[in-house]
Amino acid sequence: MTTRTRTLVATLAVLAALTGCSAEGSADSGMAAPEAAADDAAALGAAGDGAARVEGTATGTGEDQQVVQTARATLTATDPVAAARDVVALVARLDGRVDARYERSGSGKDDPGSATLTLRVPSSAMTSLPEDLGGIGELEEYLVETENVTNAAQDLDARITATELSVERMSALLASASTNRDVIEAEGALTERQAELERLRSERARLADRVALSTVDVEIYAPEQVPEALVEEPATFLDGLATGWGAFTATVRGVLVVIGVLLPWLVLGALVGAGVLVWRRRRSTAPTAAPTAPPAPPTPGPAAGA
C-alpha cells in the first residue's frame, strides 16, 4: 500500500467517525447539521493537506527521511569496568544518555569482570561512534540495523491534525449546548476525542525519540573472555581442518568422560543381572518331590460274634 493510499484510508476513517458523530449529535440535540458537516469537511481537508505536505517533504531528499537506528557493539579491554566508565563519559560528551548499565567486578587477575550498557546516542553521532568506541577498547563487533518510519510518522501527523480539529469542533458544540442532555453528550464526545489526541501525541513523541536518539547495546569483555560466537570462522582449508580436529578431540574427551562416569554403574548392574540370572536357572533345574500317595483305608476286622 502506497503512502497516498494509506493517507486516504486514514482520512476516510476520520471522516466516517466525524460524520457519525455529527449525525448523532444533530438527531439527538437538534444542533445545526450544516455547520457540523462544514466543520467535518474542514477537518478532513486540513488533515489531507497536512498529510500531503508531509508526504511531499518525505519524498524529497534523503535527509527528510525519518530512520530509526539500533546498533550492537562488542568491545574488549583489559579492564572492562574502567572501559565502561569511559563509554559513559563518551555518551555524555555526545549529549546522549545511558538507559541501562551493568558492571561485574572481577574476582582477580584471571577474572577482570565485564560490563553491559544500553546507550541512547544522537543519530548524527552514529557515523563516528565505531571510531569513538575503538578509542576506548578493541572493537570486536559492530552491527547496525535501520528502519524507515517516515510513513508511520506521516500517518500519525495526519491523524493528530484531524483529531485536533475534531476537539475544537466538540468544544464549540459544548459551548453552544442549550440543554443538559446536549451538555452531557458533548462532554462525552469531547473527552473521547481528547483521550485519543493524547494517545496519538504520545505515540508520535515516542517515535520522534527513537529517530532522534539511536539505541546502542554495548558489551565489554576481557580479551580472553570474548564469547565463542565472536570467534572468526576459518579462512583456509588448514584452518578448517584444525577447527574440525579440535571439535573432534573435544567430542571424544566428552564421550570418555561420560563413559567414565557410567562405567561403575554399568559394572554393578551387570553383576546384579548375572546373580539374578543364576538364581533363576538354579530354581528352574531343581528336582521336584514326587507326590505322596494317600494312605490305604483300614481293613475291616471280623464281625463281632461271628
From TrEMBL:
Segments of this protein annotated with the region Disordered: 286-306
UniProt feature coiled coil, ranges: 183-210
Keywords linked to the UniProt accession: Coiled coil, Membrane, Signal, Transmembrane, Transmembrane helix
All copies of domain DUF4349, residue ranges: 65-276
Compositionally skewed regions (Pro residues) per UniProt: 292-306
Pfam families per UniProt: DUF4349 (PF14257)
Membrane-spanning ranges: 255-279
Cleavable signal peptide: 1-22
Superkingdom field: Bacteria
Name of the protein in question: DUF4349 domain-containing protein
Species per Swiss-Prot/TrEMBL record: Cellulomonas avistercoris
Lineage: Bacteria, Bacillati, Actinomycetota, Actinomycetes, Micrococcales
